[in-house]
Fold this sequence. Notes:
By secondary structure, this protein is mainly α. The protein has one domain (3-142): Alpha-Beta Complex (Sufe protein. Chain: A). Helices cover 58% and strands 11% of the residues. The chain is built from 7 helices and 2 strands, in the order ααββααααα. Strands 1-2 form a two-stranded antiparallel sheet. Strand 1 and strand 2 form a beta hairpin. Helix 1 (3-15) runs antiparallel to helix 3 (75-88), helix 2 (20-33) packs across helix 3 (75-88) and helix 3 packs parallel to helix 7. It starts with a helix and ends with a helix.
Amino acid sequence: MTIEEVQKEIISDFAVYEDWMDKYTYLIELGNELQPIDPAFKVDQNLIRGCQSRVWLQQRMEGDLLYFDAESDALIVKGLVALLMKVFSGRTPQEIIDAEPYFIDEIGLKQHLSPTRSNGLMAMVKQIKLYAIAYKQILSQKK
């Protein structure tokens, strides 16, 4: 599935719920499905700055694809992390750089998250894109 297809699927999944309490419940369910990261990666250098809760983001390259593992200590934020992993993990650095995560606005997250959670979500997206830029440079140097 392309990033575009995944985003459309997320929008469709959230459209099923009319009430924001149901959408929050769904976000929590997504977060509960997220695999916990190895405790060895729960270090300061993997913490996302700008998040009110603690979010750890670990990255790795496998071939030409960039994978992310992430975890949060807050239920709703863990769901947000799960959405971002669904969209960005297992992609080429260029796909991540080029992707515009429009699903965030489409499902109403910016309007329904507290300002601190919204800022944290954008900080996660920014960090994912920064990793993609760094890995793209590493890959280009290898060629």
